[in-house]
Amino acid sequence: MGFLKGKEFEYSFVLRLFSYTMGILLFLAVETEASVSDSVTVQSVSEVLVDANDDGKLDLLNQRVRVAGRASVGSSVFSSQDLIMYMQDAKSGILVFSNTQRKDISRGDTLIVSGRLQLYYGNPEIVVDTIRVVKADSKSPTPISLRDAFEHPRQYLGMLVEGEAVITRKNISSDYTTLTISASDTSQSSLTIYVNEGHNYRKDFDFNTLRVGDHIRIKGIMDTYTFQESGNTIYEVLPRTPDDFEYAGMPRRYIMYLLWGGGIVILLIAGWVWSLKRQVRSQTKDLHQAIEDRELLMREIHHRVKNNLSMISGLLDLQMDTTTFNEVKESLENSK
Question: Does the predicted TM-score (pTM) go above 0.85?
Answer without folding.
Answer: no
